[in-house]
Specification:
The chain is mainly α. Helix content is about 80%, strand content about 0%.
């Protein structure tokens, strides 16, 4: 009775996918993880670079606000002092965010290295594909 049940549902017996199709499926799935890590890492690096530029610009603006005279801090107008305090507060928040971004970037670089180590063959293909898409054409290491 059981033989009849199984035969009616699997007329040719059990079949699995071809090994080539399994490799393609695995590569596509694993490649998504590699791409996600790379995309998030790039987003954090872009944010860090932009924030560094803005902090540098704020430092320049603050230095103009401070003035160049040696005793200017004594006679500084209240509006300029408030402006300087505002620049300092923004730069402090920016530096705090930079620390967070650097921590995220460091962790993602570690994740990428672990990913490449664990999924070496898939990672090489995915990294080469990303290099090609970005026009770098360099061999992944």
């Amino acid at each position: 009775m059981l033989k009849g049940f199984f035969r009616s549902h699997l007329p040719d017996g059990f079949r699995s996918r071809s090994p080539d199709r399994d490799i393609e499926t695995d590569a596509a799935r694993i490649g998504k993880i590699g791409s996600a890590i790379t995309d998030v890492l790039a987003a954090f690096e872009n944010e860090r670079d932009g924030l560094n530029r803005r902090i540098s610009e704020a430092q320049t603006a603050a230095s103009v606000t401070v003035g160049t005279a040696t005793d200017e801090y004594v006679t500084r107008e209240p509006a300029r002092a408030e402006g300087l305090a505002s620049y300092e507060a923004e730069m402090r928040r920016g530096r705090e965010r930079l620390l967070q971004l650097e921590n995220h970037i460091s962790n993602l670089r570690f994740m990428r290295a672990a990913f490449v180590t664990r999924f070496n063959e898939f990672s090489k293909r995915e990294l080469q594909k990303m290099h090609d898409e970005r026009g770098q054409g360099a061999e992944p290491s």
